[in-house]
Design goal:
The protein is an alpha+beta fold and about 375 residues long. It has ten helices and 13 strands. Strands 1, 2, 3, 5, 7, 8 and 9 form a seven-stranded antiparallel sheet that branches. The protein has a four-stranded antiparallel sheet with strand order 10-11-12-13.
Length: about 375
Amino acid sequence: MSEGSISQEEIDALLSGVDMGGLGSAVSSSSAGGNFDIATLQKFAEGLKDKLSANVGTMTGAEVKCDAPVVEASNRDLLLAKVPEMVVAVMADFNKGLSGDHLFILAPEFAQKIAGLVNNEENPELDDMALSVVSEMVSSHSGAEITDLSAGGKLPGLASSPAEAISQPKALVRMPQGNFVLFTYPLTLGGAPFTLWEAVSGNVAEGMATALGGGVSAPPPPSPSPAAPQFNNQQPTMGGMPNMGAMQQPMNAMPNMGMMPNMGMQPMNTPNVQSLQFPNLQQYGGSAEQGNIGLIMDVFMEMTVELGRTKKTIKDILGMGEGTIIELDKLAGEPVDILVNHKPIAKGEVVVIDENFGVRVTEILPAIEHVTNQM
């Protein structure tokens, strides 16, 4: 996938007005709350920094140093303020033992540096090959985390989904909802400083802290309310009836009747009741969709034309040379496929424009086929 591209699923969500983790929504508070055991998670991250350095160093063959990590409560706005406009996001959600979001974010330069060292290539493009290298690096670090979290036996069978990297604008990254915990690892790779951000959802952070022997303690129960005072002159007698003799007061203990307010003349506080006016219901639609589509008008997407496909054995591929003819799975004259971000959206016929090839669109695929191609 090319740099700056977005998936068909994200486009469909934007066009239908679906909230993409805060995109187009009201700006939340600039400070993050959350009752997390940061001290336990900080100690956990410090124990992983040397393993992270070793994993990246083994993959790249370069000298890697990881300085002291920082663990803090965060939210979407705070994380967006830290990362560059274009990022490489890697999802490796926990799906067994713990269940929740697990996100890694790298600057494109960091991802290119890793891919270039692994593939022995300078300034590589962030194509599928480069992104798979980044996914492998994240998988190694995530595996080290799982090993340490499972050591105490409190999270047996802990596992995460396969890491999947994608290059896209930071506003389209699916981040954990609400408040979450952010791990920041400052790294030096080949003499250049980089940062690896790792975000876990709130419930995952709580489960991690508990498995590590920490966790936030439950608040103490509220103190009982003081008992109502007991009057000596209200002593029950047989049958539970109060002692009427004890309730009698001498006349000189009664207040002056002339000083008592006239209870019959006391006005009552009548509430001011008004009828509630509801606004007219309006059909949701048009304007929201126009606002959402405007957010992605300047995003570049990769468009390719596929003449055909075929499968070959490794033996056949290694035996190819100049002049080899490769037979494709399409007949001559059959429409070619037009793809956006590797997803078919239309069909067309090949034309020649001056000295260049072109494609005339002959058919737009129905939306249901777009969905089927992604499943």
